[in-house]
Design goal:
299 residues, 8-stranded parallel beta sheet, alpha/beta, Aro_Compnd_Degr_Hydrolases, Amidohydro-rel, Metal_Hydrolase, TIM Barrel
């Protein structure tokens, strides 16, 4: 094997892999539950990492992820293309082929691909694109309007991956002007210590009022200043669910790349759901109905 495919560079440090001790959660998830946020990485011999990457993950393959889904009792999933692979979406497209109708994808692209290439991504299962201010090698917010114009005919949403919630304050007017649906990754990265009074959270709540914005409850252990069960995140979670239960989705964020805290077990993350969304009917909406509509699982 070419060592360049595996060895991290100083600019792309190695990051820890997931907790691979698979176990079933206490909560039995409803039929049709969608994990709306996971990544697959490698195997590197087949899908090399991008030289522009910000981090170097372990191989976390589609087979590993399938085993996790089956253990957790999750029927459907969305693979968000990981930054370690840059704008080469081959690893995610391969995962979508292997997982079949139970899977959809979110691509990482830059403007200028052309209709034929975009159509091929759509036919491969992609239903949105991700823009990030966190990782290198993908699309940034300078590409926002151009990517919107190129993908709106496909009905793709645009997933916003923010470094901090304050970015939403300046972004909000641009997001309001877009015709695409917008998904705010990781609850807009509002931190527990910021609380519901944060300007970024106010911008998030304002965007929810548009009816074209979705909020993803995933990776919230990153935003918390407290250990599991991360109760400092509850005021923000409860506020968005109460405001727009029809625009909230959920994901595991497996395999939890670039996380330096205690690695969460995914069964524990599932078991947070009754704390986050106590009402069973609303929980069904968030886990099943909303993502089925956003990602087109029932069409």
């Amino acid at each position: 094997m070419d060592d360049s495919l595996t060895a991290p560079t100083p600019a792309a440090p190695a990051c820890a892999g997931p907790d691979r001790a698979l176990r079933a959660p206490r909560l039995k998830l409803p039929a049709g539950t969608v994990d709306c946020h996971a990544h697959v990485f490698g195997p590197r011999e087949r899908f090399p990492f991008s030289p522009e990457r910000s981090y170097t993950p372990e191989d976390c393959t589609v087979d590993d992820y399938r085993a996790l889904l089956d253990t957790l009792g999750i029927e459907r999933c969305v693979i968000v293309h990981g930054g370690a692979h840059g704008t080469d979406n081959a690893v995610t497209l391969a995962a979508l082929r292997e997982l079949g109708p139970r899977a959809r994808g979110v691509a990482v692209i830059r403007p200028g691909l052309g209709d034929a290439a975009l159509d091929a991504l759509h036919e491969g299962g992609m239903r949105g694109l991700r823009i990030s201010s966190v990782v290198r090698g993908g699309a940034s917010f300078e590409h926002l309007e151009a990517l919107s114009q190129e993908t709106r005919r496909l009905g793709w949403h645009m997933l916003m991956h923010l470094h901090r919630s304050a970015e939403l304050v300046q972004l909000a007017p641009r997001l309001r002007a877009l015709p695409n649906d917008i998904v705010l990754d990781h609850l807009g990265y509002v931190r527990g210590e910021e609380g519901t009074g944060a300007p970024g959270f106010a911008a998030l709540m304002s965007l929810l009022e548009t009816g074209r914005t979705w909020v993803k409850l995933a990776s919230l252990y990153r935003s918390s200043s407290q250990p599991y069960p991360h109760e400092d995140m509850l005021p923000m979670i409860h506020a968005v669910v109460a405001a727009r239960p029809d625009r909230i989705i959920w994901g595991t964020n497996w395999p939890h790349p670039i996380y330096r805290g205690p690695m969460p077990n995914d069964a524990d993350l599932v078991d947070l759901l009754p704390l986050w969304i106590p009402d069973e009917a609303t929980r069904h909406r968030v886990l099943v109905d909303n993502p089925a509509r956003l990602y087109g699982f029932d069409t």
